[in-house]
């Protein structure tokens, strides 16, 4: 994860339980004011966005095929 910390692009990593495990500083700077600390939350818990959650679940299902 060290490589992600110096990136200027936003990076978010989910763990096996679909919870946010890592947010690099670039993305944290963008999101923190509106969403606060999102670590340990699911996408739905963090962003309260059903469309985002559904797109993620569809992507996950397609990758698993």
Notes on the structure:
- With 65 residues, the chain is mainly α.
- The chain has one domain.
- The protein is 54% helix and 11% strand.
- It contains 4 helices and 2 strands, in the order H-E-E-H-H-H.
- A two-stranded antiparallel ribbon has the order 1-2.
- A hairpin with a 5-residue loop joins strand 1 (12-14) and strand 2.
- The chain is globular and about 35 Å long.
- The mean pLDDT is 93.
Rg computed from alpha carbons, rounded to a whole number of angstroms: 12 Å
The tally of structural domains comes to 1
Helix content: 40-55%
How many strand units? 2
Which range does the strand content fall in?
Answer: 5-15%
* Alpha-carbon distance between the two ends: 27 Å
Overall geometry: globular
Q: Point out poorly predicted stretches.
A: none
Question: Could you state the order of secondary-structure elements as H and E?
Answer: HEEHHH
Write the layout of secondary structure elements.
Blueprint: H1 2-5, E1 12-14, E2 20-23, H2 25-35, H3 43-47, H4 50-64
Antiparallel strand pairs: 1-2
């Amino acid at each position: 994860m060290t490589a992600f910390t110096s990136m200027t692009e936003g990076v978010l990593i989910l763990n096996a339980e679909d919870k946010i495990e890592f947010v690099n500083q670039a993305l944290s700077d963008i999101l923190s004011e509106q969403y606060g600390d999102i670590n340990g939350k699911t996408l739905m818990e963090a962003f309260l966005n059903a469309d985002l959650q559904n797109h993620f679940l569809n992507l996950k299902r397609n990758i698993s095929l």
